[in-house]
């Protein structure tokens, strides 16, 4: 039994974009907060209070605290990781072997699965083998 991993490209790309956006938001927040919170002796408590008190003001009086950006960045990163994980699928191929016949030299050989085109191991021609019987 052989397992094959297939990735859905659109889901994988979307998940990667979400992960990068989430990491970018977390990097911006940590860069902004780390510069101002490391000047004191109690770094962890000052960093936590700085995240809850520092506010970014946008247009029309809309403002967000740094903790909102932290939560948003973590949520987007986790959403991207989940999308990337769900865009992967494992397929299992059966382990049965088939007996193939070359149409030119009429020799037989066993293969793990029937192939559309193959190279005959006896006459070395690129052929479309015929399935004789399956086991």
Number of domains: 2
Radius of gyration: 29 Å
Shape: rod-shaped
The largest sheet is: 3 strands, antiparallel
Topology order in helix (H) and strand (E) letters: EHHEEHEEEEEE
The chain-level structural class is alpha+beta
Summarize model confidence as the mean pLDDT: 82
Number of DSSP E strands: 9
Which consecutive residue ranges, at least 5 long each, have pLDDT under 50?
none
Task: Note the total helix count.
Answer: 3
Q: Tell me what portion of residues adopts beta-strand conformation.
A: 25-35%
The end-to-end distance, rounded to whole angstroms, is 14 Å
Strand adjacency order, main sheet: 6-5-9
Measured as a percent range, the helix fraction is 40-55%
User: What is the oligomeric state here?
Assistant: single chain
Could you describe the 3D structure shown?
The protein is of the alpha+beta class and 135 residues long. It folds into two domains: 2-92; 95-134. The protein contains three helices and nine strands. Strands 6-5-9 form a three-stranded antiparallel β-sheet, with no helix packed on it. Strands 1-4 form a two-stranded antiparallel ribbon. Strands 2-3 form a two-stranded antiparallel ribbon.
Notable traits:
45% helix, three-stranded antiparallel β-sheet, 135 residues, 3 helices, alpha+beta, 2 domains
List the helices and strands and how they pair.
Layout: E1 2-7, H1 9-37, H2 43-53, E2 55-57, E3 63-65, H3 66-86, E4 88-93, E5 98-101, E6 108-111, E7 118-119, E8 126-127, E9 130-134
Antiparallel strand pairs: 1-4, 2-3, 5-6, 5-9, 7-8
Helix pairs in contact: 1-2, 1-3
